[in-house]
Amino acid sequence: MGAYLSRRNLLRAGAGVAAAAGLAGCGDGGPAARAGDNAKVRLPDHVPYKGVAADLPATDKGVLAGYFHYPEHPRPAAPDGPPAKGPSIRVMTITYNPVPPPAGKNPMWRRLNETLGTDLEFEISPATDYAQKFPLTIAGGQLPDGMLVLPTAAAQSQMMPALFEDLSPHLSGPAVRAYPYLANIPAKSWADSVIAGGLYGLPMPRLNSGSAMMYRADIFAKKGVDPHPGSFREFFRLCTDVSDPKHAKYAIGDPLFALYFVLEMVGGANLWREKGGRFTYWVEELDLLHRALDAMRQLVKAGAVHPDGFTIAGNAKTKDWFGTGQTAVNYDGITGWNNYLDQYGATDPDFAIDAMVAPGFDGGPGTHWAGLSSFAMLCLKKAPRQRIEQLLRAFDLMAAPFGTDHYLLRKYGVPGHDFHWKGHDPLLTPEGVLDIGLPTGFTTDAPQSIYYPKNTDAVRKQYAFQQRATAVLVPNSAEGLYSETDVTLGGAAVELLREGPIKGYMRGSTDWGELRDAVRDWRRKVGDKARAEFEKAYEDLHA
User: Fold this and answer.
1) Whether pTM exceeds 0.90
2) Which of 24, 76, 289, 306 has a 20 to 30 A CA-CA distance from 46?
3) Longest dimension (CA), the chain
4) Which CATH architecture has domain 3-205+376-451?
């Protein structure tokens, strides 16, 4: 779905609520800018990088470029030498992986500093701790040079002008062409950086097609199951065909994520839907929600859903169920595709995955919910112009795209230690897996691409899926807009709906009247105010 509905992104809400308290505590938020000022901000020009030809070209609809091999001779990303010579640069960001070895024991990190011409000093927080660290840093006033700010951070219109640099004089319109790799980032990825009449962050671009209903292609082949259902009835049959509850085999692990897939079948909103300036949240589309939940009830009753899927916390278990074959389908982020192949294909030579696009509930085309265009943004602490330009030169190189020597360094490390060559494709060593845990992708990054050096067939499959998905893509209408109510209260409020009456209805323990009353209560406490704020932001932006 829209990436907001993943459990990983629930962490963002915690950071948002705490940031508001942190900013209030520091006492220098200043007056809020008018939302209409955002309409005056010109996004950076988009100048696609053309240094490396793709085997499978990117499309205007958002299909990523695909590459079968890394170029034999990577393009130099900094032909004139290190671009950011000067004082060291301190960055605070997050990781979802183990914290990497320090620079003294990490040749990739040391080489990165050499290529930049300065020391990049990372303050790395596990994602689960960032909600606590972010407000403490804001309140303490000793900001790093660059700081990851999630889209759900609260009080943005006060925080940005008070603490961070407006980058529009440096990057808006043609100005970004001084930084060619930042100019390579699509314009849509910059939308969340437009706040309080300025451009306040560098994006971390993500793929347009977001998540996917992945399936175990090897299991489907053994069962003789068609992996491309043409309706919910066919999807139901598929799920029951691959399920065997007596032997702890199920089609589905996480019932909520399966619900999102069924909502794509019925044409449900990708979080927020806008029509004529009016915004509607996905839980308010009661006819569509009722139909999707009734369908999920059928799947639960038929034994196609893992019974523990209703109570597990986090998605590590559902990933492992899918990887080990206890479940046969799993709705997950597409960026995890290669990770599944690495982790489970290493021990199971028959392991194979692919992904399906939701059909229409009664046949015909369904929809596919777009993901976030940017995961978050890196905001730069206020500083003299010369310092800001040094930072931008550094982060420009950190966005060098696929096919360059610097992309190879960031993603695979140093040859001989972090990876070895297979032909001219890099394959990570165990040391490299740890070293590249340095979260360069959570500073800024190049637009993503499709590449899997161990198997070109995986590249073809991912590209084909993205072609199908982007043909029926539905965006979240609220992306690029801001609601204080949504970021401070919205995450917790909708979590109560999901974990309570929505799951209860799927299991048969909650009736429709209870769920409808819970949605009415959500509207009263959170929904109506969040809607009004989004509608005002939309009106101001389109005036």
Assistant:
1) yes
2) 76
3) 68
4) 3-Layer(aba) Sandwich (3.40)
Distance from C-alpha of 311 to C-alpha of 315, rounded to nearest angstrom: 11
Domain 211-369+474-541: assigned CATH number: 3.40.190.10
Does the pLDDT at position 238 exceed 90? yes
Cβ neighbours of residue 222 under 8 Å, at least 6 residues apart? none
Q: State whether residue 194 is helix, strand or coil.
A: strand
| Sequence-separated (6 or more) residues with CB below 8 Å from residue 189 | 203, 204, 205, 206, 373, 374, 447
> Shortest CA distance to 352 belongs to which of 339, 362, 340?
340
Answer yes or no: is pLDDT of 453 > 50.
Answer: yes
211-369+474-541 and 3-205+376-451 share a CATH fold: yes
Q: Give whole-number Cα distances, 133 to 19, 188, 269, in Å.
A: 9, 29, 33
Question: What burial class does residue 460 get, using C-beta atoms within 10 Å of its C-beta: 0-12 exposed, 13-18 middle, 19+ buried?
Answer: middle
Residue with tokens 């596919």: 368
**pLDDT bracket for residue 542 (50, 70, 90):** confident
Is 39 strand, coil or helix? helix
